[in-house]
Amino acid sequence: MNSDRFPFKETLKNYLPLKEYFVKGRWHLAIGLLSLLLVDLLQVLIPLVIKKVIDALTFNNATSGLLLKYGTIIMAIALTIALFRYLWRYFLFGLSRKVEEALRNRLYRHLQTLSYSFYQRAKTGDLMARSINDINAVRMATGMGIIALTDGLVLGLATIGFMLYINPLLTVIALIPAPLLIYATRILARRMSTGYERVQSTFADLTEEAREAFAGIRVVKSYGKESWEYNKIKEEGANYISENMQLAKTIAVFFPAMGIFANLGLAIVIWMGGRLTILGDITTGDFVAFISYLYLLAWPLTAIGWVTNLIQRGSASMRRINRILEEVPEITDPPLPPDVLTADRANHPADSYAVGRMDSRADSPAANHKIHGGIQIKGLSMKYSGQSNYAIKGIDLNIQMGQTVALVGQVGSGKTTLLHNIPRLFKAPKGTVFIDDIDVQDIPLKILRENIGFVTQETIIFSDTIRNNVLFDRDGISANAFEDALKAVRIYDEVQTFEKGPDTLLGERGITLSGGQRQRLTIARALLSDPPIMILDDALSMVDTRTEADILNEILEFRRDKTNLIVSHRVSTISRADLICVLKGGELVEIGDHKALLEKGKEYARLYKRQLLEQELEIQSG
Fold it and tell me: Hey, is 5 helix, strand or coil?
C-alpha cells in the first residue's frame, strides 16, 4: 500500500485496539446513543409544528389558543431535547474520557515492559507526543467523532425522510450535489490522513528538541550557546508550522467545499420550491418546513467534513500508538510450564492475567531458589545492533558468593556491557550468564532484579522527597535501616541540614543537589534492600578520592559476605577488590588480585600506574 494513501478500511482498522474499552463501556455507549437519537428525532418534529403554524396563518385559521398550543409544543420539545442532550453529552463524552484513560494506561504499562534496547532507539520527545498529543486526538475521534457521525447519519436520514414526505421530486433535486460532495470528501480525506501523520511526527521532533534544550540548559549557558539552541528550536518549530500549513490548506479547501455544496442545494430549493409554492403544488407551510429541513440537513453535510477530520486525525494518531503497542520486548520472563499455565488461566481473570503469570512464576523452581550471589559467565559474547564489532567477546568468569570484584579497563572496553547482562538489561544468549548455577533466563525478571542492586553511571533522581527517592516504594523499611543506608554513603549529616531533612522535596532530576550527593542517594537506594548482589558502575565518580575510599569502606562493611561488583578508575577502590578483571577491546585479558596482577607487569600494571599518576595530580591540584 502506498504510504501516502490510507483507505477508509485501513483508517478504521487502526481503531481495533479500542474495541475492548467500548465493550466494557457498552451501557454508557447505549444510553448516550439512545439519548442522541431521541434528540435527533425530536429536532425533526419542530419543522412540522412550524408548517402547521404557517399553514394556519396562511389560510386564516390561526387563533390565539392554537398559536399558544403550538408554542407550548415547541417549548416542550425544546426542554426534552435539552434533557436528552445533557444525557448524551455526559455518557458519550464521559466514555471518550474513559477510553483516553484506559489507552494511556495501556500504553504506559506496555512501555514499562519494553527492553532497554527500545529506549536506546526511541526518542523521549516522540514517546511524550504519543502519550499526550496522539491520545488526545484519539479521544476526540472516539468522543466527538462518534457523536458527529451518529448525529449526522440519523439526523440526515430522518431529515431526508421528512423532505421526501413533503415533496419527493424537490428532495431529489436538492440532493443533486451529494455525489460531488462524497467524491470530494474521499480525495481530501486521504490528504488529511497523510498530513496529520506528518504533523504528529514533526510535533514529536519539536517536543524532543525542547526537552533536550531544557534538560541541558546548564551546559548551554555554560558555553554561551543560547543562540545556537534557540536556532535549533526555531528550525524545528518552522518545520512543524510548515507541515501544519500544508494540512491547513487541505482543511481550508475541505470545509468551504462542504458549505458550497450545502448552499447549492438550498439555492436549487428556493428556485424550484418557490415555483411549486406559487403554482400551488405545495403549501407555504410545506415550503417553509422544507427550507427548515434543508437547514437541518446542512449539519449532516458539514458533519461529513467534521467527522472525516476527527477520524482521520485520530486514525493517524492511533496508527502511531499502535506501532508502540506492537513492539515486542526482547527480554521476557521464562515461559510457564503447561500445567502451571492452565491453572493460572483458570485462577486469574483476563484483566489480571499478567499479574497472575507473575504470581505463578513465583512458585516455579527457579523462583523458589534463594539467590545467594554466585555469578558464572560462560563464553558470553555480544554485539550492539547495527555494529559489526563485538562489545564483549568470549567472557568466562566465575565469581564466588561474597566476593568483591573490580572491573577495570579503558573507556569502551566492555565493562558496562558485561554488567548490564547480569540483571538482563541486555539480551544475553541462553546458557551464558548464571546466578548460583541457574541460567538468568530461567529466573523471573522481577525476582532477578529485586535481588540485584544496580547503580548505573547515570544518576536518576525523581521530583520527590529524599525519603521517597531512597525508599523507592518499598514497604517494611524501618527508620533505622533508612538512616543506616544514608550513613553508609556519608550523606546523613548533609540531609539533616536541609530545611525538612529527609522530607525535603527535591527539584526536577535532583537539580538542587550536587552531582556527588545525587550519586550517594542512588547508592543508598540500592543499599536499603541489602540485595545479595550489588553492582556499582562507576557510581562514585563525582566525589573526591578520599570520600570515595571512606564510602567504599562503609559499603563493604555494610555488605560483608555479600557479592559486590565495582567499576572504578581510582586506585584506592580497585586495589581493595578480592578479584580484579581487566577488559580490553571487549575481551577479558587478565584476572587476579591486585598484588598478582602488578607482579605480571602487563595491562593491569600499565593501567594502575597511569591511574596512580592521575590520582597524584588530582591531589596536587586539589
Answer: coil
